[in-house]
Amino acid sequence: LVLEAVLVVPVVVLTELLVVVVDVVEVVDVVVVMVELVTVEVVLVVVVPLVLLADVVVVVVVSVLLVAVSVVVVLMVVVPVVVVLVIEALVVLLEVVLLLVVVVVVDVVDVVRVVIV
């Protein structure tokens, strides 16, 4: 009986310890799976929308920069051309006015000469 107790008790204790170890391993496996699921959910719920939002922000910033560059190009090219055209038109108008003044002065001088003669 003592021999049987000496042989059986350690086997039973080792078996129970093995069962506890297996249970702990199963719990650790479940925790690892849950952590993986939470990680995947965090990636899907947080990271993916942030990446998409970053893409949208980049597109908007690039679009605004392109519009700004277009406006600057228009201001650098179109505005000086318009200013030059306006200045040329004013010069032509001034030349026409001066020619009219000269013609009027010449006519007045002719009239005065005719009156004097």
The count of β-strands is 0
Q: How are helices and strands ordered from N to C?
A: H
Unreliable parts:
none
- Rounded to the nearest angstrom, the radius of gyration is 49 Å
Inertia-based shape: rod-shaped
Largest sheet: none
**Total number of helices:** 1
Structural class: mainly alpha
Mean pLDDT: 88
Span from first to last CA? 169 Å
Helix content, binned percent: over 70%
What percent strand?
under 5%
Explain what the structure shows.
This protein has 117 residues and is mainly α. It contains 1 helix and no strands.
Q: Which short descriptors sum up this protein?
A:
117 residues, 1 helix
Ordered list of secondary-structure elements with their pairings:
Blueprint: H1 2-116
Briefly summarize what is shown:
With 117 residues, the chain is an all-alpha fold.
